[in-house]
């Protein structure tokens, strides 16, 4: 049997974009509507099998500190991947990506794998950010891009699978 690779992953992005909900969908495969500021733990973990390899994600979620646009250094320490999330129905959360990327580059570990997730893609009628403009922006940054929905589960496993495949030593 092969070993499990441990991955510390941290979540960034404006408040209410759905960070906690996407983690709950990934880890527990459930969706609880309504605002839940915290899931009661600083991190949750889940093991994912990708191409016959096992990855144990230790996911660090915020408990609302993202409102201050800055997170504690321990939040980033030892992280090998980060998800920066925006809400496809709120353009200002897409505009905020720039400052989250800056924060991560200044305070996060070097060579951290960055994935950008456009969440709430079930709300097509309220969309303010097109898939193509977001994909273009991410490719210029060299970041992974996935649209997700914590409600329908679309894109959630793909997001974590894509991250696994970009980790050092995978290709
Ligand atoms: P966080 O502050 O980034 O952790 O965001 P939350 O996970 O607390 O979600 C904020 C609000 O958006 C809650 O009311 C969620 O139920 C809702 N929400 C989160 N993800 C989705 C989604 O994919 N689709 C829809 N329709 N609502 C979502
Ligand atoms: Mg949250």
- In order across it, which strands form the biggest sheet? 2-3-1-4-5-6
How does the helix and strand content classify structurally?
alpha/beta
Full CATH superfamily name? P-loop containing nucleotide triphosphate hydrolases
- What oligomeric assembly is this protein in? single chain
Alpha carbon gyration radius? 15 Å
Query: Which sheet architecture does the biggest sheet show?
Result: 6 strands, mixed
Number of helices: 6
Classify the fold: give the CATH topology: Rossmann fold
Low-confidence stretches: none
Sketch the topology as an H/E string, one letter per element.
Answer: EHEEHEHHEHEH
How many strands appear in the DSSP assignment? 6
Question: How confident is the prediction overall: mean pLDDT?
Answer: 91
CATH hierarchy: architecture: 3-Layer(aba) Sandwich
CATH C-level class is Alpha Beta
Beta content comes to 25-35%
What small molecules are bound in this structure?
guanosine-5'-diphosphate, magnesium ion
Give the termini separation. 20 Å
| Tally of discrete structural domains | 1
What's the helical proportion of residues?
25-40%
Q: What does the overall shape look like?
A: globular
Keywords: Nucleotide-binding
Pfam families: Ras
Organism: Bugula neritina
Protein name: RAB22A
């Amino acid at each position: 049997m092969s070993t499990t690779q441990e991955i510390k992953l941290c979540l960034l992005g404006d408040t209410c974009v759905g960070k906690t909900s996407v983690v709950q969908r990934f880890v527990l495969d459930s969706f609880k509507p309504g605002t839940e500021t915290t899931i009661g733990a600083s991190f949750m973990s889940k093991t994912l099998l990708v191409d016959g390899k096992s990855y144990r994600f230790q996911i660090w979620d915020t408990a609302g500190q993202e409102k201050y646009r800055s997170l504690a250094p321990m939040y980033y320490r030892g992280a090998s991947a980060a998800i920066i999330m925006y809400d496809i129905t709120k353009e200002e959360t897409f505009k905020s990506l720039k400052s989250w990327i800056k924060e991560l580059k200044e305070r996060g570990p070097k060579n951290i794998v960055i994935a950008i997730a456009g969440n709430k893609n079930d709300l097509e009628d309220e969309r303010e950010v097109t898939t193509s403009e977001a994909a273009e922006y991410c490719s210029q940054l060299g970041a992974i891009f996935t649209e997700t929905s914590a409600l329908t589960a679309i894109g959630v496993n793909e997001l974590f699978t894509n991250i696994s495949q970009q980790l050092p030593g995978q290709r």
